[in-house]
Amino acid sequence: MKILVTGATGYIGKRLIPLLINQEHQVICAVRDKLRADENYLKEDLIEIVEVDFLKPETLNNIPEDIDVAYYLIHSMSNSSKNFESLEETCAKNFKTYIETTNVKQVIYLSGITNEEELSKHLRSRQNVEHILNSDHYATTIFKAGIIVGSGSSSFEIIRDLVEKLPIMIAPKWLNTKTQPLAVRDVLSFLSGAAGNTKLYNQSYDVFGSEVLTYKQLLLQFAEVRGLKRYIFTVPVMTPKLSSYWLYFVTSTSYKLASSLVDSMGVQIIGKPSNINALLDVNPLSYKQAVALAFEKIEQNSIVSSWKDSMVSSGRLRNNLHKYINVPKYGCFKDYKERQVQDTQKTIEKVWAIGGKTGWYYGTFLWKIRGYIDKLFGGIGLRRGRTNPTELHAGDALDFWRVIFADKNQKKLLLYAEMRLPGEAWLEFKIEDGFLKQTATFRPRGLWGRLYWYSVFPFHGFIFNGMINKLVNA
After folding, report:
1. Which of 40, 145, 232, 427 has the fewest CB neighbours in a 10 Å radius?
2. Cα–Cα distance between 266 and 176 in angstroms, integer?
3. Residue 434: left if φ>0, alpha if ψ -120 to 50, beta else—which one?
4. Bridge-based pairing state of the strands 435-444 and 423-432
5. Measured distance CA(153)–CA(287) in Å, rounded
6. Among candidate residues 67, 3, 71, 62, the one with its CA nearest the CA of residue 34
7. DSSP at 33
8. Contact at 8 Å (CB) between 261 and 269?
9. How confident is the model at residue 19 (pLDDT cuts 50, 70, 90)?
10. What are the residues whose beta carbons fall under 8 Å from the beta carbon of 281, sequence distance 6 or more?
């Protein structure tokens, strides 16, 4: 079959595509920015990449008409705290309007469990999208999941941050809310098994794990898997705003995403039983099994996708990466340094390992201080780290930077700053003619931007010097 996957660079999309390829389907990957598409897709005969923005109806013509199945995996969890509902509605309507003109027989949508009378804004929005996608022109199959547990998922990483950083937690009362977590591999089994399955046409299923647990139990069982002893005390006085700040300062999440999660965590998420497990032969893993398997992937450095690489985690970048790939030349301050390279391959490996647990090779404590300052001013800080310790791809998050361009063959890495700044900043590493050329570019915004540059300029002399020296030292 020919299958369209929207949200192809997202957490679920990136994991679903290889499964569909293994089933020998032809996959159309719809992405807003081709630079963010996995470079392995370009080598795969069964994959076609099309550039589509569902907020721009004129781009939808790039989707071929002869598709059989379409996966709708588009969410706007925290792109905007004010208008995400209207964004999701617009995307769904534009998708439906165009997809009804194609040969599609089935649309598969991953939604959220919505069985409570009072829902969070995000769950209401998911429910609204379900209604919009219903059509007389094609069949719908809707899977409604709660918390998804897997390496790189937002819920997994937030729980990991809390458990590994805090031996004792004074936590909000919503930790007593009940939920049914589901392993990401089970989500993918449901999604991949549904394609072309006529038994699932025009059906909606709650999909959930084998246990009903409170969020407090999620934390404590996570700690057990990690061999940690943790103590949690809940208090009734934390407002949603205080709870959001609590998550924001302790974990790697952004404040907007923290607010969205707190809003949803006050709602009990319990699924309605059905025959879907038997229909698709899925036996959901327990929560502890899901956590243990996630850490196997982490230890093997084989995390396929992470929420941190999503633009939801971005501090400021909202547009396509193309806009930032051409570093401005005029009206900018630059710090340029070059050194002769002793071992090209080793230097490339060092450049590709920069940030995260490796650090920035020189003045790491100063980078950490800059991260704390950024966090205090509402930025993302350094807590995102990086998904893979040695590989980088366009669109990846790297501490408080975003990878704009990464090509080992061209020996070039370009980063764009997502920390709070009175301007815009780029950091480029490039090996040419036996020299590593390192360029920090800052385009100031007004007087404050210029004052900022001059205030940090004295530190650049030894930080950037030390960094490039370490990079070329074999």
Report:
1. 40
2. 9
3. left
4. antiparallel
5. 14
6. 62
7. -
8. no
9. very high
10. 193
Instruction: Find out whether 27 and 46 touch, Cβ atoms under 8 Å.
Output: yes
Q: What is the pTM of this model?
A: 0.76
CA distances from 310 to 36, 43, 183, 298, 444 (A): 10, 23, 20, 18, 26
Tokens 């950037």, located at residue: 464
Predicted confidence (pLDDT) per residue in 157-166, tens digit: 888 888 888 8
Mean pLDDT along residues 434-440: 93
Q: What is the DSSP string of 279-331?
A: HHT--PPPHHHHHHHHHHHHHTT-----GGGSGGG-SS--S-THHHHS---SS
pLDDT digits (tens, 9 = 90+) for 206-261: 999 989 999 999 999 999 999 999 998 888 776 667 777 777 777 766 667 777 77
Q: Mean per-residue pLDDT for 359-382?
A: 81
Q: What is the pLDDT of residues 85-106, one digit of tens each?
A: 888 899 999 999 999 999 999 9
Say whether 44 sits in a helix, a strand or coil: coil
State the Cα angle at 294 between 348 and 248, rounded to 5°: 80
Structural tokens at position 135: 């059509």
| Residue 45, amino acid | D
> In this structure, which amino acid lies at residue 411?
K
Q: Which residue has the higher pLDDT, 301 or 171?
A: 171
* In the block, residue with structure tokens 């205030």: 455
269: which DSSP letter? B
Is residue 35 exposed (0-12), middle (13-18) or buried (19+ Cβ within 10 Å)?
buried
Tell me the CA distances in angstroms from 204 to 8, 51, 279, one per residue in order: 23, 29, 13
- Average pLDDT (129-135) is 94
d(Cα 95, Cα 107) in Å, to the nearest integer? 10
Distance CA 450, CA 381 (A): 22
367 phi-psi bin (left φ>0, alpha ψ -120 to 50, beta other) = alpha
- Give me the pLDDT at residue 76, please: 62
- Between CA 186 and CA 327 the distance in angstroms is 43
Residue in the block written with tokens 């010097």: 465
Q: What number of H helices and E strands is found in the chain?
A: 14, 19
Q: Is the pLDDT of residue 309 over 70?
A: no
User: What confidence tens digit (pLDDT) does each residue in 49-61 have?
Assistant: 999 999 899 999 9
